[in-house]
Write a structure and sequence with these properties.
heterodimer; A: mainly beta; 26-stranded antiparallel barrel; B: mainly alpha; two-stranded antiparallel ribbon; 13 helices; 2% strand
């Protein structure tokens, strides 16, 4: 098949599918396309950070799916496209699948997600001066493409190839600390990640498995320049009587990471009752970075004990990550639907990095005013982290004792971490390196009951550890989850509740970590008639944690306290009768925790199908966000009007 | 590269040889327990041609679609019907691959007692798993919580005859609504908390990170094709490796600092202010944990020092600054 013909065939598939609607056989599809309007009052930065739905054209949804081409094409016997919010949506997607039995299976996916952040208070050193938003903002978009092709699916050997492209780019703003002041920099980021993978699945008699060999390539470029009007810096005043200012700062960072990886597993039914599964993953990432920086102005440095008028810096770095993980698992059928499971998993990770950083401080003079010359410094650093994890588990699951099911698992996880920082002592030496070992024992039990519309489930997990690696690591953790539900036949009434309680603690001297998380939810659905459906839910979310810490400015012992106390109430109604449908919902969320806020959301969606194939849909969304500081408050209403085509 | 392949091949050989030595033919799939008739073996996707064609049916019997017109029509988009729907007609053999022999049912005037309906844990599992009984490193029903619960079976989430049109994989509802039935608190976090991934639109769903059919390990988390946490599928820049890696990542993972299901705090952090999050580890009072002490000029009473990332901008890792300042 030549390239042109191949491309023409593929492009013709969607067209063909739609054209078939004009013929005797109808290929089902559903299209909603229209326009959305936004009316925003309040803080745009907070709205865009949280929601970011904009005015504009939108394919709200499109689905085409068929497995019945009636002989119109020999290219595919199954075809499906799904589109969601393509156009002005903050998160957009397109998925396509095409396949022919025994010949091939093709999957294509496109996703796009906005990454916007401009919060009034977050990382904002000038908040007390009333300057908002903060100086750490971004307005980026991530686009991801995936394409996978399986050849001869479901045969003894199925070769496959795949490709992923992940682009993240856009402007932003950040701050940079240099010369005893802090300057705002305009940032432009372009990251490009590519992954190619190929391999084969196989299935011979009772053995099946897959082996994948892949190559990833990451290229990142970050360009920074002094933001307009930012030359005076964020810090008022002088350093030893001399103002710190910048006339220019430019920096370019480039990072290249190449990562080959291998991923394989084998599943073997070695007897009627025993299945063995083995897996192996290995990756080897090699990162090379280069940086060039120049700055001009009037700066001070306590490290070299001088004022200076500029700086040039170049850095070359190399970091490697070698990781492998392998393990095996046995699944033994003791009886029908009663299994014994045992597994062992081992992981080893090595991180090694080295950087050579050459810095020249231009025209340095001592704080007393002598030695007007350039000062060069070289930082040659090497760091490493070794991390091993071994997990041994065994359990039993019984699913056949209807209406009951039961599962229990015990697990032991061992973690060994060795950290060797070189020149990474951040001003105050200590706790930057060493050997850390931690062993966790876990008991995980759950049971459930399901009969005549009544469902009940409970799970308990208990973890106990001998040592913490981080201060916030638990020594004891208990999690209890309970779920219950009841539904009548024919979906007239349904109710469900869930409750979850997690506690974790570390009572070691100097830590005193204690954390409690409680979540409760309940919901009710009622359908007095088939066309009418009511629903309502209540949920409560409470979290408390406290841990002692050393206050940096005075070295006293303080207590860090985090609280969440949120409750949500949601209600909705939907009505579907003939060509008309309406769905409305209201939700209220209140959080009285460390960061109090209220969120009210209202949504209405109505559709009206005209005779036959066309119709309209209208949507109204209103989101109101209020916080105590009121800096980020907003009220956003969106109205969408969409044309519907459903042949 | 060679060592990668050798390791993988060794694994294949080690596990493959004992099993291959058995050389048993694949087990015959269990037959659905039809009440009074011998059912037709389920059709498999591996051999669609093995399914009896419509021509093999007794000519006198009416088509299933004559009475079950809605189900038959819906099958045009159903993966189970690929290549087997002719002129909009669903062959009886296709229905019988799950429901067993329908002759008695048809001859009994549609007697509901004379047709097998795969419902409940055993019914649906026996029928569906005769073809879809996958168990490997990517999917393990046995290790997952769903298959070990009396509350969940295949038909709890999938609907063969009336699936949600906009949801792929014959799901009965869109994912968020489906998972909400049991995982209300997690779904409520996505819906209500101000900083959360945008689920339900734009391609990201619960199954983007979790394998609902079960997977060994906590949370049945999916991994990248190189075996990393699913976060790194999208956030490729956080993979590193970095010369100066933040210890929270080197010895922990993304969840050391972030709440993936949604948070009340910016950047889905676990604490309301950045300083609070950082200082809880960076206070080596006992001196036996990983995490250094900030120097005394970090005056936490000032706004500047309440957000450590104002200066430590490369918080995930840096190739050029040990203090993660750039």
């Amino acid at each position: 098949m030549n390239i042109k013909r191949f491309v023409a065939n593929w492009l013709s598939l969607p067209i063909l599918a739609i054209a078939m609607t004009a013929q005797a056989q109808v290929v089902p599809f559903d299209l909603e396309i229209g326009y959305r309007w936004l009316n925003l009052k309040g803080d745009q930065g907070m709205y865009r950070t949280q929601i970011n739905e904009r005015s504009g054209l939108l394919i709200r949804s499109f689905t085409l799916a068929t497995s019945d081409f009636e002989g119109h094409t020999t290219l595919a016997d199954r075809f499906r496209i799904d589109i969601s919010d393509l156009g002005s949506g903050p998160a957009q997607s397109l998925r396509m699948e095409a396949s022919r039995s025994g010949a091939y299976k093709l999957r294509f996916a496109y996703r796009s997600a906005d990454a916007f952040s401009a919060l009034p208070a977050f990382a904002n050193p000038l908040l007390s001066q009333g300057i908002v938003p903060g100086q750490h903002t971004e307005d980026r978009r991530r686009r991801m493409f995936d394409i996978d092709l399986d050849l001869l699916p479901d045969r003894a050997i199925t070769p496959f190839v795949g490709f992923t492209r992940n682009d993240n780019q856009g402007p932003g703003q950040t701050t940079y600390h240099i010369g005893q002041d802090e300057f705002v920099l305009a940032q432009n980021l372009h990251e490009r990640d590519r992954e190619i993978r190929a391999g084969a699945s196989f299935h011979f008699a009772s053995v099946s498995g897959q082996i994948t060999q892949g190559w990833r390539s990451f290229r990142g470029t970050e360009s920074l320049t002094l933001a307009s009007g930012a030359g005076n810096g964020n810090e008022p005043g002088t350093v030893l009587g001399q103002p710190v200012t910048a006339t220019s700062i430019t920096r370019t960072d480039q990072t290249h990471v190449d990562t080959p990886f291998t991923n394989a597993f084998v599943s073997a039914q070695v007897s009627k009752r025993i299945r063995l599964i083995g897996n192996y993953v290995r990756l080897s990432a090699d990162s090379n970075g280069s940086e060039s920086e120049s700055a001009a102005g009037s700066f001070a440095s306590f490290a070299i004990g001088r004022f200076y008028t500029g700086l040039t810096e170049s850095a070359a770095s190399n970091a490697k990550n070698k990781t492998w993980r392998g393990g095996g698992r046995a699944e033994v059928a003791l009886a029908e639907h009663v299994d014994f499971l045992a597994g062992y998993q081992s992981e080893h990770r090595e991180l090694d990095g080295a950087a050579l950083i050459n810095t020249v401080f231009l025209q340095g003079i001592t704080f007393a005013g002598f030695d007007r010359k350039d000062i060069a410094t070289i930082l040659n650093a090497r760091n490493s982290v070794d991390r091993d994890e071994n997990v041994l588990s065994a359990g039993i699951s019984a699913r056949s004792i209807e209406p009951f099911a039961f599962r229990m698992e015990v697990r032991e996880a061992k973690q060994d971490v060795n950290v060797s920082p070189d020149l990474a002592e951040i001003v105050v030496p200590g706790s930057q390196s060493g050997d850390f070992a931690r062993r966790i024992h876990t008991l995980d039990v759950n049971g459930s009951y399901n009969h005549a519309g009544l469902m009940f489930g409970a799970s308990l997990r208990r973890d106990s550890a001998d040592e913490p690696v981080f201060r916030t690591d638990f020594l004891d953790r208990n999690r209890l989850r309970v779920r219950a539900g009841w539904s009548t036949p024919k979906k007239l009434f349904r109710t469900g509740v869930t409750a979850e309680r997690t506690t974790q603690s570390n009572d070691r001297t100097g830590i005193g970590y204690d954390s409690k998380l409680r979540q409760y939810s309940g919901e009710v659905e009622l359908s007095p008639i088939e066309a009418l459906h009511f629903r309502g839910s209540l949920s409560q979310f409470r979290a408390n944690s406290n841990i002692s810490f050393r206050v940096p400015q005075n070295f006293n012992i303080g207590e860090s306290i985090q609280q969440e106390d949120g409750n949500a109430r949601e209600g909705g109604v939907s009505y579907l009768k003939g060509p008309f449908s309406i769905d409305a919902s209201v939700s209220r969320f209140r959080n009285r925790g460390t960061l109090p806020f209220n969120i009210d959301r209202n949504k209405v969606r109505a559709t009206w199908d005209f005779k036959g194939k066309t119709g309209i849909a209208a949507e109204y969304d209103r989101d109101q966000y209020e916080e105590n500081a009121s800096l980020g408050n907003y009220e956003a209403s969106r109205f969408g009007l969409y044309f519907r085509w459903r042949p | 590269m060679r060592s990668h392949l050798i390791g993988a091949l060794a694994l294949v050989v080690l596990l493959g040889i004992p099993a291959l030595a058995q050389q048993k033919p694949p087990e015959k799939p269990p037959e659905p327990p039809a009440p009074s008739t011998q059912p037709t073996p389920p059709a498999t996707s591996t051999a669609p041609e093995a399914t009896p064609a419509a021509a093999a049916e007794p000519a006198a019997l009416p088509a299933c679609g004559d009475c079950h017109a809605d189900q038959a029509k819906a099958f045009a988009a159903n993966a189970h019907a690929r290549g087997q729907v002719k002129k909009g007609e669903v062959a009886n053999a296709l229905c019988e691959s799950c429901h067993g022999d329908g002759k008695a049912h048809i001859e009994g005037g549609g007697d509901k007692e004379k047709i097998f309906k795969p419902v409940g844990l055993l019914g649906s599992n026996k029928t569906c798993l005769s073809c879809h009984g996958v168990s490997n490193d990517r999917i393990s029903r046995h290790a997952g919580i769903h298959a070990n619960s009396a509350a969940v079976n295949c038909l709890t989430c999938h609907s063969i005859h009336s699936s949600e049109w906009h949801a792929p994989h014959l799901l009965a509802k869109k994912q968020l609504a489906l998972c909400d039935r049991c995982h209300m608190t997690q779904v409520s976090s996505f819906r209500n908390l101000p900083y959360a991934h945008k689920l339900g639109r734009g391609g990201m769903e619960c199954a983007s990170c979790h394998e609902p059919h079960g997977r060994p390990g906590a949370g049945s988390l999916r991994t990248t094709s190189a075996g990393e946490l699913p976060c790194l599928n999208c956030h490729a820049d956080k993979r590193g490796p970095f010369v100066f890696q933040h210890g929270a990542i080197a010895a922990g993972d993304c969840m050391t600092c972030h709440e993936p299901h949604g948070s009340s705090n910016p950047r889905r952090l676990k604490r309301a202010t950045v300083a609070q999050l950082c200082i809880e580890c960076h206070s080596p009072i006992s001196g036996t944990t990983l995490g250094s002490q900030p120097p005394s000029f970090h005056n936490l009473s000032l706004p500047r020092y309440q957000n450590c990332t104002t200066c430590h901008v490369a918080i995930h890792g840096s190739n050029r600054d040990p203090q993660l300042l750039k």
